[in-house]
Amino acid sequence: MTKFNIARPEVAALHKVATGPQDPDAIRLNANEAPETHWFADDEQALNRYPEARPTVLRAELAKLYAVSEDNLLVTRGSSEAIDVVIRTFCRAYQDSVVSMPPTFELYPYFARIQGAESIEVPLHDETFAVDCASILHACKDDTKVIFFCSPNNPTGSVVDARDILSVADARRGKSVVVVDEAYIEFSEQASLTSVATTHENLIVLRTLSKAYALAGARCGVAISNREIIDIASGVLSPFSFAAPSEDYVLQALEPNRMAAAKQYVEEAIAERDRLSKALGDFELVEKVWPTDGNFLLLRVSRQQAILDSLRDRKILIRGYGEHQGLKDCLRITVGTPAENDALLNALKDFDTQ
Question: What is the pLDDT of residues 154-173, one digit of tens each?
Answer without folding.
Answer: 999 999 999 999 999 999 99
